[in-house]
């Protein structure tokens, strides 16, 4: 009987303390509030503007002319960026994380892959 009473007291005292924890919901990042610095002039542009800007306007902002393949990669990157932005204007962190993990720190095209495609293509 003594064990049952002590168990009852233990459950009534310590069980409510586990349910008293609160979880804090982090606010979603808005694409219009996240700015990137572009070009040598140091101008800032939001992610929503970057996903909707034309490449001619982007050339004016950066102050340098883009080549054909740079324009092509710019439009592809814009499409991926538009897919990462939800309809309510927030950024999908999971899609952004997948993109960064997949592409990592790649810059430009790989010359080895170019020559393999050139010689093995035909």
Task: Describe what you observe in this structure.
This protein is mainly α and 122 residues long. Strands 1-2 form a two-stranded antiparallel ribbon. It is built from six helices and two strands; from the N terminus they run αββααααα. The protein has helices spanning 2-19, 47-52, 55-62, 68-84, 93-103, 111-120, and strands at 35-38, 43-46. The protein is elongated, with a radius of gyration of 26 Å.
* Shape designation: elongated
Helical amount: 55-70%
Mean pLDDT across every amino acid position: 77
How much of the residues is beta strand, in percent? 5-15%
Distance between the termini: 87 Å
Q: In terms of per-residue confidence, which ranges show pLDDT below 50 for 5 or more consecutive residues? A: none
Radius of gyration based on Cα positions: 26 Å
Structural features:
2 strands; two-stranded antiparallel ribbon; single chain; mainly alpha; 122 residues
Write the layout of secondary structure elements.
Blueprint: H1 2-19, E1 35-38, E2 43-46, H2 47-52, H3 55-62, H4 68-84, H5 93-103, H6 111-120
Antiparallel strand pairs: 1-2
């Amino acid at each position: 009987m003594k064990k049952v009473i002590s168990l009852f007291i233990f459950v009534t005292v310590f069980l409510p303390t586990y349910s008293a924890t609160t979880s804090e919901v982090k606010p979603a990042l808005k694409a219009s509030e996240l700015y990137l610095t572009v070009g040598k002039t140091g101008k800032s542009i939001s992610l929503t503007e970057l996903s909707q800007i034309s490449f001619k306007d982007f050339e004016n902002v950066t102050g340098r002319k883009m080549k054909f393949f740079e324009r092509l990669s710019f439009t592809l990157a814009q499409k991926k960026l538009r897919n990462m932005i939800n309809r309510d204007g927030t950024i999908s962190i999971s899609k952004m994380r997948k993109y960064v993990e997949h592409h990592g720190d790649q810059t430009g095209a790989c010359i080895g892959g170019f020559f393999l495609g050139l010689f093995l293509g035909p």
